[in-house]
Design goal:
The complex is a heterodimer. By secondary structure, chain A is mostly beta strands. Chain A contains no helices and 11 strands. In chain A, strands 2, 4, 5, 6, 9, 10 and 11 form a 7-stranded mixed sheet that branches. A 4-stranded antiparallel sheet of chain A has the order 1-3-8-7, with no helix packed on it. By secondary structure, chain B is mostly beta strands. Chain B contains no helices and 11 strands. The chains are: A mainly beta, B mainly beta. Chain A binds chain B through residues 31, 33, 35, 40-45, 48-50, 56, 58-59, 90, 96-98, 100-101, 103-106, and chain B through 1, 6, 9, 31-32, 34, 43-46, 49, 51, 89, 91, 93-96, 98-106.
Chain lengths: 112, 113
């Protein structure tokens, strides 16, 4: 079954404790993105990747890092989480830049 | 920075009526315009998309129109049904030289039976 998976689905952590949210897709897609969703703001792109070892900043990259060492995986790293990073995070992948993005199930992160 | 404005933020219609959601984008390099539907507690899913070389696209009860000169695109849902109730997001994507995607803030659609 074609899918995008994210882990963990829920995470409560404290300020400053490094964390990683994993994202994996099994569709051999080149393009992957991370978004955060906050009420009234829609989805905002954090980082995107167009292929292995090719990543670039989206609209709200501050406080986040990503890597793309393998085509299927695109982890999101928060080196020192802060309360303003409390949000719902979605990973997405697509075959080209003009194709449907397939979203993962989301990760709800709370930073206290 | 670049942005996408979406209106209205909330829309309530009677079952069987039509619903129209409008978006305006600022980046003239945008060339791909998808619409996503998000039901409560679920992930966004594509319902229709349009590319910059096309002015209109239809898929059963759903249609999208694009006016590149005005940087404006719209979603039209006809014969609305209660299961159309959800949040709808428009987006503008720039594929040339990158993969920046800007989403609108969303429209919450209520279809009353």
């Amino acid at each position: 079954e074609a899918q995008v998976t994210q882990n963990p689905r829920y995470l409560i952590t404290v300020t400053g404790k490094k964390l990683t949210v994993t994202c994996s897709q099994n569709m051999n897609h080149e393009y992957m993105s991370w978004y955060r969703q906050d009420p009234g703001l829609g989805l905002r792109q954090i980082y995107y990747s167009m292929n292995v070892e090719v990543t670039d900043k989206g609209d709200v990259p501050e406080g986040y890092k990503v890597s793309r060492k393998e085509k299927r995986n695109f982890p999101l790293i928060l080196e020192s989480p802060s309360p303003n990073q409390t949000s719902l995070y979605f990973c997405a992948s697509s075959g080209t830049s003009e194709d449907e993005q397939y979203f993962g199930p989301g990760t709800r992160l709370t930073v206290t | 920075g670049e942005n996408v404005e979406q209106h209205p933020s909330t829309l309530s219609v009677q079952e069987g009526d039509s619903a129209v959601i409008k978006c305006t984008y600022s980046d003239s390099a945008s060339n791909y315009f998808p619409w996503y539907k998000q039901e409560l507690g679920k992930r966004p899913q594509l319902i229709i998309d349009i590319r910059s070389n096309v002015g209109e696209k239809k898929d059963q009860r759903i249609a999208v129109t694009l006016n590149k000169t005005a940087k404006h695109f719209s979603l039209h849902i006809t014969e609305t049904q209660p299961e159309d109730s959800a949040v709808y997001f428009c987006a503008a994507s720039t594929g040339t030289g990158g993969f920046k995607t800007i989403f609108g803030a969303g429209t919450r659609l209520f279809v009353k039976a």
